[in-house]
Give the backbone structure.
Amino acid sequence: MAQLHAFTGQLPEDRTQLYTEAVQFLNNDWNKAGVFIDYIRERAGLLIRHKTEAYTFPHRTFQEFLAACHLASLPDYASEAARLVRAEPDRWREVFLLAAGYSARINLLGQALNAVNALCPFEPDAPRSAAPADWPAAPLAAMALLEIGLVGVQREPVGQAVQQRVQRWLQLGMRHDVLTPRERAEAGRSLARLGDPRDEVLFSAAMEFCYVPAGPFWMGSQDDPDAQNIEQPQEKLEIFYGYWIGRYPVTNAQFGEFAPRAATARRVTGARLRRPGIGIRTGLRGDGTTSGARRRPILASRAIFRITRSSR
């Protein structure tokens, strides 16, 4: 990497472009390739020699990138890439992403988009109409679009269509019990970067709430070796009142909508803003007694916002 930096003057931020330039740099001179192999074997420990001329990578990324280059060169790259990653997602996931990014950067944008299209080839009509393997493919397709780059994706009509379809897959997958928690978290992050069209996560006025009824519930852990002392023993408690809780945590977009207004409230009145949307009163606990640690929300037409100075 140091030799590549000295040769080109800078290293690209994009990892696919970095690997491409490194391979091209070494292939131009066999002496450089020999020096490179000696260095990474003897000094860096990035190659392990098994036989006289046989090496393996202790880290898989370079091997995955070389596999991605070969995969992208195949005549049936799009269908073959989708088939491999569906059959063995843990083995081919990174290769699929690298192949998509690599293809886009060697002016084969159409092939990269075709590979993503092959991963999500139809619309998600209903939560149970698709096969179980189709749902985890949607977060991977979203990550591949981001690896390609949204500028290139949105430049092509087929790219726009694929992006919109993947957005619909992600929305439906997160609303129903078809993704693992990890896949659902990846889907949410990717959808935010692709462009989340849901009003309920963009605007505070459109927030969705779920009602939690009064009644008994279990608190704590029972026979859990990872539980802390304060989490044991498990006990049955009761809430004597029902309440509403947000379906989703407050998003950056919603807080960004609120923060400028709260700042204006502090500048204009120092304590309270009487126009619709926000009301803040300083120095009151929930029971009405004074405290410098919390600010009790005041209903102002539509919304309630709570601000706390503690990390909790």
User: Anything to note?
Assistant: The longest strand covers residues 290-297.
